[in-house]
Design goal:
Layout (H helix, E strand, L loop, with lengths): L1 H17 L4 E8 L5 E10 L4 E8 L2 E10 L2 E6 L6 E7 L5 E7 L6 E7 L29
Antiparallel strand pairs: 1-2, 1-8, 2-3, 3-4, 4-5, 5-6, 6-7, 7-8
Length: 144
Amino acid sequence: MRRYVLACLFLCFAGPALAQTDGLYDVTGTNLDGTDYTGIAQIRSVGLNSFLIRWRTGNDITDGMGMASGRTIAVTYGAAQRPGIGIYTINPDGSMDGEWTIVGAPAIGRERLVPRPAEATPPAATPAPPATQAPPAAPAPNQR
């Protein structure tokens, strides 16, 4: 009985983190300078609660990695030059709302990721998963 109760507790608390799934997400956000941007993000699990993420906004590609814990996701990106960090909340519908910044920047950007339906075919411009390509240059100061 004790095992059953522990398993139920684990599922109750782990459930939100499991909502973060591999796939494509539509991205909308606000840059550090207040301008808006849109794009696509691709998430690929690489561990129990860790994942790789690749954003494509305009002609820019940014690679990052993250960890899910409960309803919270922490990400880091652009670590080679100007590191960026972000914190997201997983919503019940699988979307994620968050804030991000570049280390040392005087502002915070905002971002929303909305999962695309599973049957959606990735656009031809969507890059391969992060592990198959060299990392891009660091993002410009006012852009992801």
